[in-house]
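Feature request, filed as a ticket because there's no other form

It would be nice if the structure record came with a short human-readable summary line next to the tokens. Right now we just get the raw output. Example of a typical job, pasted below so the devs can see what we mean:
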Amino acid sequence: MEITAAQFELIEHCLPRQRGNVSLTNLQVLNAILYVAEHGCKWRGLPKRFGNWHTIYTRMSRWAKSGVLDRTFEQLQRAQVVQIKIEAVSLDSTSVKVHPDGTGAPKKTVRRLSASPVVDGTPRSTSSRRTRARP
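Raw output as currently delivered:
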């Protein structure tokens, strides 16, 4: 799905005027965007004939933020050049382990006899000396 120069003239007024030293025309960028939309490839997967993928991505990102892409695609559909229905579907199969308290599991009810570790016989620190009775 590529737009010809004659079809591009119908929507050229929707795109910003190119100024300065640009390596890619708006027609080339638009055709690259349509290629990514049609094939669902990554930006780095664009064929070399479209030019530098990063330049195309940067320009597309600017156009999307400023509303240029919306106006352009509306005009393309009114002129019946392309018929695109863009939908986004996302699936996530991430699983996260949850602590048993977070799952609603019953809490343990067994309590220690004393809250003091000294009474239970455990040392207060690992460096404390204990004397043992020798038989």
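Something like this underneath would help us a lot:
Helices lie at 5-11, 26-39, 53-66, 68-78, 117-120.
DSSP finds five helices and no strands in the chain.
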